[in-house]
Amino acid sequence: MNKYTWTLIGAVIVAGISLATWAGAINQGDKEALHAYKKMEQARNQENKSSSNVTLSDFSIQGAVLPEADKIRKYNDTNMQGLLSSTDEKLSFIMEEDEVKGIVIATDKEPIMAGGEKSGPELFDLYENIKNTLGKDVNITYVSYSGGFIFVATDSEGEESLWLDQRASTFLDLPSHKQLKSEEVVEKIREGAESVDEEKTNQLEMGSKSE
């Protein structure tokens, strides 16, 4: 074989490896969640036998969780990151070309949920708004809150801000889709935790009186 032939073979092998790497990039959890979404869509649209040509976004958002109410109530700092515990869950967007169809939450190995036809486009707009405001280097973490989502954004200077979707903003009585200071959101979350503790105390007192 001449030099040109070996170069061509080498290029084909490299292309094959790149394609295989890209095809295997989607992990098992995401794969199963996306498959479940496709099955749900087929069940909804039984007249249309063809499966929707949906894929996952080429990026995901790392998940975190809030502690129990008593720990939130005792938290004295104003920084949200200090209140959170990281998880192995990530949020990705279900895409059909440039249209957002929903969201997938999964670990690398297991699916957690797939759907969110209404929340998907809203969360994608919120994500884009954060990137446009704080720059592409911003680090974003998501937290589920009362059926909604809080995005915790840390910019390149280490400054933290919080962004709420519509549902979370309703529960916290704060604006949605706007850059908020950590302290005002953390304070609202603390107030919510205190009301939960008060409700539990009242229920225990009522229970003891009825005995």
Explain how this protein is built.
- By secondary structure, the chain is α+β, with helices and mostly antiparallel strands.
- The chain has helices at residues 3-23, 28-44, 69-74, 119-134, 166-172, 182-210, and strands spanning 55-56, 61-65, 85-96, 99-106, 111-115, 139-145, 148-154, 160-164, 180-181.
- It is built from six helices and nine strands, in the order ααββαβββαβββαβα.
- Strands 1, 2, 3, 4, 5, 6, 7, 8 and 9 form a nine-stranded mixed beta sheet that branches.
- It is globular.
- The termini are far apart.
- 24% of the residues are buried.
- Residues 2-24 and 201-209 have low confidence and may be disordered.
Salient structural properties:
211 residues; alpha+beta; nine-stranded mixed sheet; 9 strands; globular; disordered N terminus; disordered C terminus
Describe this structure in a few short sentences.
The chain has 211 residues and is an alpha+beta fold.
- Give the overall shape: globular
Which ranges are low-confidence, i.e. pLDDT below 50, for 5 or more consecutive residues? 2-24, 201-209
Strand pairing plus helix content: what structural class?
A: alpha+beta
State the major sheet. Answer: 9 strands, mixed
Oligomer: single chain
Radius of gyration: 22 Å
Distance between the terminal alpha carbons, to the nearest Å? 92 Å
- The average pLDDT is 83
Share of residues in helices: 40-55%
Question: How many E-type strands?
Answer: 9
Elements, N to C (H/E): HHEEHEEEHEEEHEH
- Strand portion, in percent? 25-35%
Supply the number of helical segments: 6
